[in-house]
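Hi everyone,

Forwarding the result from last night's run.
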Amino acid sequence: MTHLVLAPLAGAGGLFAMFVDVARATFRRPFAAREYVDQTWFVARVTTLPTALVAIPFGAVIALQLGSLTRQLGAQSYTGAASALAIIREAAPIATALLVAGAAGTAICSDLGARRVREEIDALEVLGIDPVQRLVVPRVLAAITVAVLLNGFVAFVGIVGGYFFSVGLQGSSAGSYFAGFATLAQSSDLYVGALKAAIFGLIAGVVASYKGLTASGGPQGVGDAVNAAVVQTFLLLFSVNFLITAVYTEIVPPRGR
């Protein structure tokens, strides 16, 4: 019974320690620049197309739902503004994070887990090479970089996709869709969206790396670590997203107040 209680606490403590180790190792020299470039290219390659394909229905669903609601309220001119606000502030960071965690995070976890069970990580430690600095930091920074870049891309694709679905299926005019863009959204919404994407990329990279480095039990253990990494990352992403949104809405007043 005691083991069942202490095991989650030990896992949470180990994950927090990994965050601290990554923060320390990020500013330590030498920096694995080539590994960072390779990992950034890999993460971008496996996430760009799926993220773009996910962004289209995200934008379409938001535009269709808001278009129906604004027509009932007689405020069709606000469809574009509300859609852009929802996509930039919420949908784009979440879609980006889910794909980075699901596609890139699993690859990072399985790669590090395979290195652990093959005892390559132990060999690095014997040679005096810090695996966090050499392997984890480049992957975490790559996840953050790609998440921030994809966030803007997803926002653009989502808004454009929402426009075509709103105008094509609901008969809204292009002028009414774009007319209210500046009435609700503000520059701080772009900043908080980018901040969310960066934090989500950090969480996805650190959790995947931690579960990979702590994998044990051969190939089955690596598979279990990958599954646990995805589940834990998603739980943390939604929890952190709620906290950031709650704090942001309290600190930054909406436009027009």
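Residues 31-251 form one domain.

Cheers,
N.
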